[in-house]
Amino acid sequence: MSLEIVAGVDGSAESLAAAHWAAREAGRRKLPLRLVHAWLWQPLDLPLEQDRSTQARLAEDLLKDAESSVVAAHPDVAVTAEVVSDTPVAAMLGLEEQAEMLVIGSRGQGPILGFLLGSYGQQIIAGAKRPVVAVRSRHAEEEAGASADEGDVVVGQLGTSEDSAPALRFAFEAAAARGSGLRAVRAWSLPPLYAYSPGSMRLADDAGGLVPFEEKALHEALVPWRERYPDVRVTEHVEIGSAGQVLLAASASASLLVVGRRAKRGAIGPRIGSVAHAALHHADCPVTVVPHD
Fold first, then answer.
1. 3-state DSSP percent of the chain in helix, strand and coil, to 5
2. Which residue has the higher pLDDT, 3 or 53?
3. Is pLDDT of 215 > 80?
4. Spatial distance between the Cα atoms of 79 and 33, rounded to a whole number of angstroms
5. Which DSSP string corresponds to 218-230?
6. Does position 231 have pLDDT exceeding 50, yes or no?
7. How far is 164 from 154, CA to CA, in rounded Å?
8. Do 181 and 152 touch, CB atoms closer than 8 A?
């Protein structure tokens, strides 16, 4: 089955920027693009006249405006657009089986930490089985151009080779499609005293110390992807520090930041992990969150 890129639009500058980013990515990957606007008729319990047909027409007009903007800027991309009668989260997740990725807009940094992405975006990222790309709005002249896509793809390699394989796969595919380099980053920290054990320290000693041990772990995780994408120029970067801070520093001039996530549920709903949270709310470039559950 041929996959497509699915982008959600809601009339905001962020969602329009996401739609243009999705169109550029669809062009690079030779995939069709589907624009989706979720609209569900829910009459309010208020003594006001509520015209369903008018609101439905407004939803269609919003989608047509986004479609016209994208088609004008990307005439070589096959674009379809539809209003889905559902909530935004259910609409996007309901289309993911036929999607290579889901693309949404993101406001990025805001005044209340932990609630910046918006509840819809966080729920989509936490519940998706496909990669989700969050795109922030940039200057208007960049929305339809490629200047925002310059720079290497940066990917965080965390945990074992198996844990990071989905994120590495996406990052190598993105770099190959762009013809750009790839910067693979592994952050590490000194283990607490109680975590030291003869077995774990023996592995580090065999590698020549903690730093060579981490460098070896990163190198080995990259081996199969280097072989699959031999034309992608790869830079390996290992640094001590928190994963979020190291990745943000490494992605300062990146075109795309790719991180993995293992969804967790908290008392107030789904959580996406501290590394993905930091990337989504503070990175200047688009961020792809790849599930690895």
1. 45, 20, 35
2. 3
3. yes
4. 5
5. HHHHHHHHHHH-T
6. yes
7. 13
8. yes
pTM for the complete prediction? 0.86
Domains with residue ranges and CATH for the chain:
1-146 (3.40.50.620), 150-293 (3.40.50.620)
Q: For the segment 9-50, what is each residue's pLDDT rounded down to a tens digit?
A: 999 889 999 999 999 999 999 999 999 999 887 665 555 555
State whether the Cα torsion 202-206-211-217 is positive or negative: negative
- DSSP-derived 3-state class of residue 161: helix
**Does residue 192 surpass a pLDDT of 90?**
no
Helix (H, G, I), strand (E, B) or coil at 240: strand
> Would you call 66 exposed, middle or buried from its count of C-beta atoms within 10 A (0-12, 13-18, 19+)?
buried
Q: Strand, helix or coil at 154?
A: strand
Q: To the nearest whole number, what is the mean pLDDT of the chain?
A: 84
Distance CA 198, CA 177 (A): 45
Provide the percentage of residues in the chain whose pLDDT is more than 90.
58
Is 211 exposed, middle or buried (CB count within 10 Å of its CB: 0-12, 13-18, 19+)? middle
For the record, the structure tokens of 93 come out as 């997740």
